[in-house]
TrEMBL record:
The chain crosses the membrane at residues 240-264, 276-301. This is Glycosyltransferase. One of its GO terms (molecular function) is undecaprenyl-phosphate 4-deoxy-4-formamido-L-arabinose transferase activity. InterPro entries: Glyco_trans_2-like, Glycosyltransferase_2, Nucleotide-diphossugar_trans. PANTHER family: UNDECAPRENYL-PHOSPHATE 4-DEOXY-4-FORMAMIDO-L-ARABINOSE TRANSFERASE, UNDECAPRENYL-PHOSPHATE 4-DEOXY-4-FORMAMIDO-L-ARABINOSE TRANSFERASE-RELATED. Pfam families: Glycos_transf_2 (PF00535). One of its GO terms (biological process) is lipopolysaccharide biosynthetic process. It comes from the Bacteria. Belongs to the glycosyltransferase 2 family. It comes from Nocardioides luti. Residues 11-149 form the Glycosyltransferase 2-like domain. Keywords: Cell membrane, Glycosyltransferase, Lipopolysaccharide biosynthesis, Membrane, Transferase, Transmembrane, Transmembrane helix. GO terms for cellular component: plasma membrane.
Amino acid sequence: MSTAPREHTVSVVVPVYRGAVTLDALVAEIAALAEPFRTPGGHLARVSEVVLVHDCGPDDSDVVIRRLAAAHDWVRPVWLSRNYGQHAASMAGMASSGGDWVATIDEDGQHDPADLGALLDRAITERADVVYAAPTNPAPHGAFRNTVSRGAKTSLRWMTGNRDASSFHSYRLVLGEVARSVAAYAGSGVYLDVALGWVSRRVATQPVRLRAEGDRPSGYSFGTLLSHYRRMVVTGGTRLLRVVSLVGLLLAVLGFLGAIAIVWARIHGSVVVQGWASMMVVTLISSGFVLVSLGVVAEYVGAAVNMALGRPLYVIVRDREDGPLGSAGAVRATDDEEALR
């Protein structure tokens, strides 16, 4: 008895901040995948929906999103109340998705939707919950930024204990149940890839080639990237905190041994003059270490407090044009006033 092959449905989530120029071309490329297609590995798949998450950017992305949603029944807008950032917008899209798989794609066009088939093949072959794109060419950000990015990801492996940290990438394919679960429980300030690593049984990578970013530059400044790095370290685990504790214990042991040595030297008359310079050096080193330790502890406490306070990671609202703040609402109010006269 023959059975029909399983059709894998894929929800494509696109966080939109400044996509007024690039969204049309991106959705046009995805349109070719909205009909059933065969992956390079022979699996049957279909993009069942494209979730465009409006992250309240400075351009006319909302106008483009409305037009695309009206033109395609598989394009669904998700409206956020304010700008929350790429990772929060991605989680909002994941929470609103319904496909067997959820793919996150940047709005700027550097991710080729045609690679979705290869990502799906890798996920099925490796039985992986998450598949990250592994670029075979340098990202279009410049040599300095690319080098710093590689160094940051490598250091994250040691500081967080997550062996997959060096594979983190915004072009990713996630098992739908995992994606929606992570979006449901991850608290404010939690880095998306860190949260995925908490629950993913297996993570794989798939080589892809990045494209240029189109007509718009990257929206991430050095300060923003540094903030992302800090957030990944703080929410990635307590390994750094344990290192601080171990170093503090080591210094305490050394201090105790040094005190014994000084007492012994004093008893035997070896100490003639009290060493002011030595005392100041020890004081400065100890004080500096204490301050650094307090800073690290404060970062962890701050992250814990943000999550404990219940601050929402995102809030989904309806299209403002359909609400009381929209122009349609203003027109209806005017009509009602005329009717009452």
